[in-house]
Amino acid sequence: MSELEAAGEKSGGVLNGTRTVRDATFDVMRHYGMTKIFGNPGSSEIPFLAGLPDDLDFVLGLHEGAVVGMATGYATGSGRPAFVNLHTAPGLGNAINAIANARDNRVPLVVVVGQQDRRHMALSPFLTGRALERVAGEYPVWSNLPVRPQDVPGAIARAWHEAVEKRGPALVVVPMGDWAEPADEDVTVAAPARVLSTPSVDSNDVAELADLIEDSTSPAIVVGAGAATTEAWQALVALAEKLDCPVWQDPFCNRPGFPQDHPLFAGHLHWSRALMRKALAPHDLVITAGTWAFRGYLYEPGPYVEPGTHIAVISDDPDEVHRSPADLALLGPVADACAGLAERVQQRSGNSPAPFHRPAPLEPPAAGEPLRSGHLLTALVERLPADVVLMEESPSTRPDLLARIPARTPWGFVSVANGALGYGLSGTVGLAMSMPDRPVLAVLGDGSAMYTIQTLWSAAHYHVGALIIVLSNGRYAVMDMLAREAGEEGSWPPFEELDIAAIARGLGCPAKRIETHDDLLRELDQQIPDLASRNEPLLLEIVVAPE
């Protein structure tokens, strides 16, 4: 008897004496640890969701973007795929932005999308989704519409493996009538119960890269989210200290790849080709670890590095490796590769960077002056514990936050990888669900918060103890700035009428609106010391001047 057969026999899930596709699917979900379902139910999902077994929990989100965002945060924190259930075409359409974010953040999800009953889809009844397995385009790492109802459990099992291996959302479309169909008698699941993956890097694999390093006179390292693990941090610290070289965080980082309070941390590399080239000009070798070479933004002509500077890439992501214009790339585990290099290369000195200077604390505002975002960041630097999980989604504040607040653990900074708004709030709630004993705090913009503001209901209902700080300036400040730089004024109005705290309270989430420096410090002193033990959310809306 297989593990899945044993699980099915133990659960005893049957309908009128017949074991159903739904029963077999529940056993697959149990086997792979997907016992929490993030969703927003629709009519095509009722046959799956109504009357769930006691050991399966349903987490309700009030919009599909919030649903997938919470699941993405949960999977990020737990390190395992999270299970998402979406409602046919409308639900999947609402969620595509968040699915794209999960793909770019390299977060594994199993996304099950409902569909009309197979028996009359040819007649295109109400809520029939057209080619749902293709609606999200290339953002899912794998998509499937099972050929038979009996293939659904195996498709979901395979989706788990695809999500793990390819680190992204895997999608399965399930017509609503499939759940009540009888399962195969032999419970044949077309996916392995367990996969042993043994990719590793030994000393021979890093020999050529070690030789490239030894031939260089002034190496530098650029790190990315693929190095945001304790093991990779330890290996990169050892390698950087051996080379006595500067370490930059890559542009648009969504996780830190190196301790940012380390003396060799050189700062955050700018996305501009000209500024990147200037920063890296003193070095004849640049090694990227856990990212590719290099991520830019607005187009600028010219190379990323000066002529004669060699580029090496270390990543376990084939896409990152294959898109990099590098002299040499190593596809494999980042921590193993960097540890192997640290053992092989010779100790150096004299290549360390000048100390990274963080901005001076911002003086309190004078009487009658408004709060600025820097006042909040200055206060947080002085109060945040080293193990804080800090989510950022405040585009106009991000550069100042990165400059002022060092990430001291691989969770010290979490953000969106692709610039899509909405993950900050929903992802914070999912992170806090997956790490209930860690202090979790978000710094969001008011424009960003509005994209998935419905998540506050879920945070309150499920007693998620995160501190959510919303900097309220009543406008899209970055867009206003870009318009001015183009010599024009934005065609969009400000939204100063917004009262985020009132919206939060209307959704059942405790909230306070803060407009003075004294009130800000008093509230942070009250909330941050007990942040790790909170059992309900709190939103602080900080009214700040536009900058």
How would you describe the overall organization of this protein?
- With 547 residues, the protein is α/β, with parallel strands linked by helices.
- Helices cover 35% and strands 15% of the residues.
- It contains 20 helices and 17 strands.
- The chain has helices spanning 3-11, 21-31, 46-49, 64-78, 88-104, 132-135, 152-166, 207-215, 230-243, 273-280, 318-322, 334-344, 373-383, 398-404, 423-434, 446-449, 455-461, 477-485, 500-506, 517-527, and strands at 36-39, 57-60, 82-86, 109-115, 142-144, 169-175, 219-223, 247-249, 265-268, 285-289, 310-315, 328-331, 389-393, 440-445, 467-472, 511-514, 538-543.
- The strands form three sheets. The protein has a six-stranded parallel β-sheet, with helices on both faces. It has a six-stranded parallel β-sheet with strand order 9-8-7-10-11-12. The chain has a five-stranded parallel β-sheet with strand order 13-14-15-17-16, with helices on both faces.
- Helix 9 (230-243) links the parallel strand 7 and strand 8.
- Helix 1 packs across helix 2 (21-31).
- The protein is globular.
- The relative contact order is 0.10.
- Residues 1-15 have low confidence and may be disordered.
